[in-house]
From TrEMBL:
Record GO biological process: proton motive force-driven ATP synthesis
Task performed by this protein: Mitochondrial membrane ATP synthase (F(1)F(0) ATP synthase or Complex V) produces ATP from ADP in the presence of a proton gradient across the membrane which is generated by electron transport complexes of the respiratory chain. F-type ATPases consist of two structural domains, F(1) - containing the extramembraneous catalytic core, and F(0) - containing the membrane proton channel, linked together by a central stalk and a peripheral stalk. During catalysis, ATP synthesis in the catalytic domain of F(1) is coupled via a rotary mechanism of the central stalk subunits to proton translocation.
Keyword annotations: CF(0), Hydrogen ion transport, Ion transport, Membrane, Mitochondrion, Mitochondrion inner membrane, Transport
The protein's name in its UniProt record: ATP synthase subunit d, mitochondrial
Subcellular location: Mitochondrion inner membrane
Cited InterPro entries: ATP_synth_F0_dsu_mt (IPR008689), ATP_synth_F0_dsu_sf_mt (IPR036228)
Organism the protein comes from: Bombus terrestris
Pfam families given in the database record: Mt_ATP-synt_D
Sequence segments annotated as region (Disordered): 151-174
Length: 174
């Protein structure tokens, strides 16, 4: 990890986005990160330069310094592969698409609700409405005075239905 990446963490922005219950965990994580950064900054960014000529003069064992120099210069500490950034970006893009779709659905619902509100606002206020106005508005949802019904006021229990069935049976010759 580069030193710039660790310095670039915006802890305040992170703290704004997490719930109150997680603030202690964030503080502990930040403390560990700061300790790691402090330890890392105590060391030089590049490997120290070694004066190989000095050691060749001082050490009398032939080839020892040359072997150490060869091994030191071939030393390569691999940085761990980043296996998660692509997954995180894909999840982030997928979530952004879901959020956009959700927003569009909500906006469509809001438009439908505004149409319903406009319809209600265009109606005559209930305080000024007559029964005839209400019957015109909701013909199936009210009691009509010209059509007498008996309880429970559904089609199957009304007398005029049984009369219609009787007249059908008598006309068919039963």
């Amino acid at each position: 990890m580069s030193r710039q990446a660790i310095k670039a963490i915006n802890w305040a922005a992170l703290a704004e986005r997490i719930p109150e219950a997680e603030k202690a965990a964030l503080a502990a994580f930040k403390s560990k990160s700061d300790k790691y950064l402090q330890r890392m900054m105590a060391n030089p960014e590049a490997l120290p330069k070694i004066d190989w000529a000095y050691y060749k003069k001082v050490i009398v064992t032939p080839g020892l310094v040359d072997r150490f120099q060869k091994e030191y210069e071939s030393l390569s500490i691999p940085y761990p592969a980043d296996n998660y950034t692509a997954e995180i970006e894909a999840a982030k893009n997928e979530t952004a698409k879901k959020i956009e779709s959700f927003i569009q659905e909500l906006n469509a619902d809001i438009q439908e609700m505004h149409k319903g509100l406009d319809k209600l606002n265009d109606m005559i206020p209930f305080s000024e409405m007559t029964m005839d106005d209400y019957v015109d508005l909701k013909p199936d949802g009210c009691m009509q005075l010209d059509k007498v019904t008996t309880w429970p006021h559904d089609e199957s229990t009304q007398e005029h239905n049984s009369n219609n069935e009787d007249s059908k049976e008598s006309s068919s010759g039963h």
